[in-house]
Amino acid sequence: MAASLPPALEALVAALLLLCGGAAEARVLLTLDDFGAVGDGIANDTQAFLDAWTAACTSAEPAVLAVPPGNAYRIWPVQLYGPCRKKLKLLIAGAIVAPASPDAWAGRDPMKWLYVYGVDDLSVSGGGTIDGMGQEWWASTCKRKKTQPCNAGPRPKAVHFEECRRVSVQGVTLQNGQQFHLTFTRCSDVKANFLRVIAPADSPNTDGIHLNDTSHVQIMDNLISTV
User: Name one GO molecular function term (predicted).
Assistant: First the structure.
C-alpha cells in the first residue's frame, strides 16, 4: 500500500529519511496510518502495526516503515518473524507505547513486548521514542513493594532481537522499560548507537542494553540512565 501522507508530513518523513540515510535505498514507503492506525496514544494500534510490518517485510523492494511524527501508537505485545525479502528500515519519528497494564499480557509470553526473530538487514532509527510504560510492572517488585517476594514473576524485555544479523538501532529514545530496554540474543553484526535509554532510579532491573551470545557488536555514544 502506498503512503498517503499529507504533503507537510510527507516532506518531514522525507527529510528524516535523508538524515537517517534511508532515502537512497528505500523503494517503498509505508506508514502505520496507511493501515488504519489511530495514533492517539489510546487506541489499540497493534493490528495496524502487524499489517504494516507484514507489508514491509514481504515487499519485493527495500522498504521503509514509518511511525509518523507527532503521534503515539499503543502496541500490545507483538512477535515479528523473518526472514524479510529485502532490507527494511523502521523509521520511528513518533512514539510506540506499550499498554500500561500487565493485564495486556494475559495469555501471551510475559517476557516479550516488541520481539523480533530471524530478521536480517534491519535498521531502526528516526529520533522517536519507544516507551515500555513499565510503572505497573515495577510496582509489583520487591524493590518497590517490600512485602512482595523478589521472585514475583517475569517481566517483558522491552525490545528483543533474537537470531538477527546486520541489525542497527540508532538515534531513538527507549524509556520506562518493563525490564531490560534493549536485548540482543544470538545476533551478529549489531550496532546500538546514539541512543537515549532512560528510566527512574527506583525502576528495578531496567538494564540499558543487554547482550546474550552476540558477536561483532558496536555500542557507542549512548546516554544510558537506568538501574
Answer: polygalacturonase activity
